[in-house]
Write a structure and sequence with these properties.
With 392 residues, the protein is of the alpha+beta class. It has three domains: 136 residues, no CATH class; 62 residues; 102 residues, no CATH class. The protein is built from seven helices and 22 strands. β4 and β5 form a beta hairpin. The longest helix has 24 residues.
Length: 392
């Protein structure tokens, strides 16, 4: 029973007497539970994303840097190219040793020439450490156990922004020989965790003239307009204006001048509803098919069957009897067997009001991912598939 009642309900019970029966109380409770359940379902259906997860501010971006270096300490798995030998000679010369590249024993193969790449995250400061990726240039077999020597990393402008050095981790191993080898992961590329130290700031501009642009990661008219409206609703003024499907111009309020970080923190944490286009992505190399939630299919009937043709050749040998004539010879007679098998194809009705109905209908056909790709392409050609078909 109800332990606590509002004054209005208590008064109704006292005035109604026997007329306010237990059935009425149960009906009232049912109505309350129904309203609560509807509210929970409504919150579950309406999904939202933060602006920081779907857009980027102008000037906040990654930057790529690259360098050429040497990995030493390899156990005979390096390369012996002329470029590697010349690089070793140049390195020794900078250390005060004059060495002729032709005098370096190339058969040792304990050194490998590598390209070193890294990504500078936004606002990386001098002294910060970043991971670097090391990849062989020549015919080195493995970087296992190697150490990357000091390597300057440059940007597209030719300036050095970081220097890298440290032991290379390939996350696997390579071993064996004489035609029998064991290989785990990719042995000719590895990583140096925290292997590079940032030496120079990357110049950036965060807002200019009291405005800053917001770039959407996926261009869409509806989503961009929704983001602009939510920003204006939160700031209680028209500070945001969409420029095109992928960018929004933000005006910095006067009270946030000089406090750009605080202003952008408020903007990026605003929740907005994202409108995704109806799209199906197909990877023909792997047979992967991804169907979006908004994909719809007009009522159609599909029949799909497989035709298998198998050609088998069996060689039969005819040998002469013992003590036969000298002219008798062994004859090889090929016997060919051709079989054709066509699976029974049933006609299945497909009507896609929801993604679940589409999946159930296609599963009823019992198709493989390869067959599903053919069916989706045929549906698109017929005009029954109301979605963008992207093949990657």
């Amino acid at each position: 029973m109800i332990k606590r009642m509002t004054p209005s309900v208590k008064k109704m019970i006292e005035e109604g007497g026997e007329n306010f029966s237990a059935v009425t109380l149960r009906s009232l409770l049912f109505a309350v539970v129904l309203l609560f359940t509807f509210h929970v379902l409504l919150l579950a259906v309406v999904s939202a994303e933060r602006i920081k997860d779907i857009a980027d501010f102008e000037g906040v971006r990654d930057n790529r840097i690259i360098g050429y270096g040497l990995v030493v300490g390899l156990d005979g798995t390096g390369d012996k190219g002329l470029a590697t030998m010349q690089s070793i000679a140049n390195m020794l010369q900078r250390m005060g040793l004059t060495v002729n590249p032709n005098d370096i024993k190339a058969n040792s193969k304990n050194t490998a020439a590598v390209m070193v790449t890294a990504t500078l995250t936004p606002f990386s400061k001098p002294g910060a450490k970043i991971d670097v990726l090391v990849s062989t240039v020549g015919d080195a077999k493995s970087l296992q156990g190697g150490t990357l020597l000091l390597t300057p990393l440059k940007g597209p402008d030719g300036k050095v922004y970081a220097v890298a050095q440290g032991p290379v981790s390939i996350g696997g191993f390579a071993g064996g020989g004489g035609g029998t080898t064991v290989l785990k992961n990719h042995a000719t590329a590895g990583k140096v965790p925290d292997g590079a130290i940032v030496e120079k700031d990357i110049p950036y501009t965060l807002g200019e003239g009291g405005t800053i642009r917001l770039f959407m990661r996926n261009a869409d008219f509806t989503t961009t307009n929704e983001v602009s409206g939510k920003i204006n609703e939160t700031l209680h003024s028209g500070y945001a204006a969409p420029l095109d499907p992928s960018s929004i111009l933000l005006k910095v309020p006067d009270e946030y001048r000089g406090r750009m970080v605080e202003f952008l923190t408020i903007v990026e944490n605003i929740d907005v509803s994202v409108d995704e286009p109806a799209k199906i992505v197909i990877n023909e190399r792997t047979g992967t098919v991804v169907i979006g939630d908004k994909v719809r299919i007009a009522p159609v009937a599909i029949a799909h069957g497989n035709l298998t043709i198998e050609i088998k050749t069996e060689y039969q040998v005819s040998q002469p009897p013992p003590f036969g004539p000298e002219s008798s010879q062994t004859v090889v007679v090929p016997k060919k067997d051709v079989s054709v098998k066509e699976e029974k194809a049933s006609l299945v009705e497909v009507k896609g009001a929801t993604l679940g109905e589409i999946v159930r209908a296609l599963n009823a056909l019992g198709v493989t991912p390869r067959d599903l790709i053919s069916i989706l392409q045929a549906l698109k050609a017929s005009g029954a598939l109301h979605a963008e078909l992207e093949i990657i």
